[in-house]
Amino acid sequence: MNEPIEKAELQIGEAGLYTFPFWLYIDTRTPLLSCDLKKGGALIRLYPPFRSALANFMPMPNIKPEAIPFLPEARPKSPLPLIYVVTLPTFPPDGGPGTIALWSDRWGKKLSIFPMDSMRIDLINSPQGDFTLLSILHRLLERLRVRSAQWWILRSVDAFLGYERHSFSIKRNGAPVDIGRGIVKARIPFGFEKPIDKNIWMESIFDIGKEIETPPYEMLFFDAYYHLAASDIRSMVISVATASEQATETTFARLWEAQNKGQKFNRGRVMTGYDLPTHLSRDLKRFLGRSFEQELPTEFAEIRKLWDVRGRVAHGGKAQFICNGNLLTLDDFQAEKMLEAVRKCIDWLQQLSPEPCKSK
How confident is the model over 95-109, as pLDDT tens digits? Predict the structure, then answer.
């Protein structure tokens, strides 16, 4: 006798499943928990990120041996036995910052700070048009990116992996003379990135509940690290310079509106032209009695260099700047110094109070 079929429950929500071309590094030593978030009449259920891909998966296709082009007389009798390898960044609990190479689709010893690549979100009883699963996901990923400083979130990990997959020795006509080598680029994290633990996970969810918007300049700042990792120094310069400009103008607007209740921000009243070093020194000093140049002179010197490079790059020039009378080309080491200075500048701007600083 067949079991009676239960009456179908009416659909009251939707579950979305997502995969990403980037990693969410999760601290598995303190397991994350699912969390229900109520907004209006809707219930949003956020599940911890999980892993869908095999160990040596990358979000770019493996080379298909049969599809490799050869001259007719150079094609091998059997397809090349290609070796597939991927490198993953590692965090301090797993010996990082560093990288680990995976040559198999199996993990072996599993990392304690583990790269997840998938998520599930439920949306229940949502009023028509109030929320979408995708908007919730994007806001969560933004908050996780900012709170964990995992700058690759929301960007493809090709900055870590590069594009080259294999190489093999050949004769003049292109025929292979060996079985080749698996190749992948390795990128060590900068060292400031944090794993997503239960605190970062819950704080990011609470941010959504409190409708905390991620400032565009925060996204641009982390984009700059992505471009640096991808060896795209020009895009790095534009991203971090724009982030600095936006953070500075946002701060002037916040302070102005706090001091002038009910009045719309008038940029020309407090900001001279469009020169970032002037805004951070003379303009802020006149407006608030505070000066980034005076309080953090070393970092301000890096901002000056950045503004010099930005002016050249924005007008089609090379990524160069003047230092002690010499024209220097921006390298990775100097770029990291500029990024560190901008991080301190943004943090300094965010803590400024609208109360003018009285001169002693």
Answer: 989 999 998 889 988
Q: What is the arithmetic mean of pLDDT over 201-218?
A: 95
Angle at 48 between CA 42 and CA 49, to 5 degrees: 115
Q: Is the dihedral of CA 36, 39, 40, 45 positive or negative?
A: negative
pLDDT of 3 > 60? The answer is no
CA angle 26, 31, 35 (to 5 degrees): 95
